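Note to self: the last two entries modelled the partners one at a time, which told us nothing about the interface. This time every component goes in together.
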Amino acid sequence: MDNRNFTFMFYGFFAGWAIIGFYVVLLGLRERRLRKELDRVRQMVAPQK
Amino acid sequence: MRSKILIGLVTVAVALLGWNLYNIFMVVPDEANQGAIFRIIYIHLPTIFTGFLGFMVALVSSILYLTKGDMKYDALAAGVTEVSLVFAAIVLVTGSIWARIIWGVWWAWEPRLTSMLICWLTYAGYLMLRRAIDEPAQRARLSAVVSIFGFVEVIIVYKAIDWFRTLHPQPVLSVRGGGGMAKGMEGPIYWNLLAFVCLATAMVMIRMKQDETSREIDSLRREAHQY
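The predicted structure of the combined assembly is written out below.
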C-alpha cells in the first residue's frame, strides 16, 4: 500500500469509528437511565394499585 | 424476535466491516496521486449514503405521520434522524480531514460543504425542537414538518456538484455516471454501505425501543397522578 498521507487516513478512520463508538455509548447510557426510571415509576405506581 | 433481528444485523455488520477492512487495506489498488488518504473514501461515501437513506426514511415516516396520525411513524422518524445525523457527522469530519490533504485546508465555504453543514444543522435543529416541546402530538406534528422541509436540503447537497461550480470532486461512482475508479476500487464502497445500513438499522431499532420505554414511563406517571 502507498503510505503517503497515511497519518491523515488513520485520523479519518479513527474519527469515523470514534463517532460511532461515542453514539453507541450514549445509546447504552440512555438505555440504563430509562430502565432505572421505569423501575422507579413502576414501584411508585405499584403500591397505589 | 426483535432481539434476534438486532443480533443478526449487528453480526452481519461486524462481519462485513471486518472483511471490508481487509479488502480496503490489503486488496484495493493504490490511487496514483493521493496516497493512502484516498482510502478514506471507503468510510466517507458509505456513511453519506447511509445518512441520506435515513433522512429519506424520516421524510416518508413524517409524511405518513401527518396523513395517518400514528405515533409509531413519529418514533421512526425521530430515531432514524438521530442515527442519520451521526453518519452525517462522520461525513463532515472525514471530508474535512481529506480536504486538509487534497485542498490544503480543513474547510472551504463552497456549495457542497456549506450545504452539507446546513443540512446537518437543520436535522440537529429537528432533534432540539423535539426536546423543546412536551406535548407529544404537537411535537410530532411540528417535527414532521421540519423533517419534510429539511429533506429539501438533502436534495441540494446531492445536486450541489451538478448545479454549482465546486471544489468538491464530480461523481466518481459508475452508478452516478462517474466511472473514474479503477477495477476493484468500487466494490468495497457498496459492501461498506451494506454494513453501515445494517448497523444504522440496528441503532434505529434500539432507539425506537427506548422511545417505547419513554412512552411507557410517561403513561405510568400519568397513571400515578390519577390516584
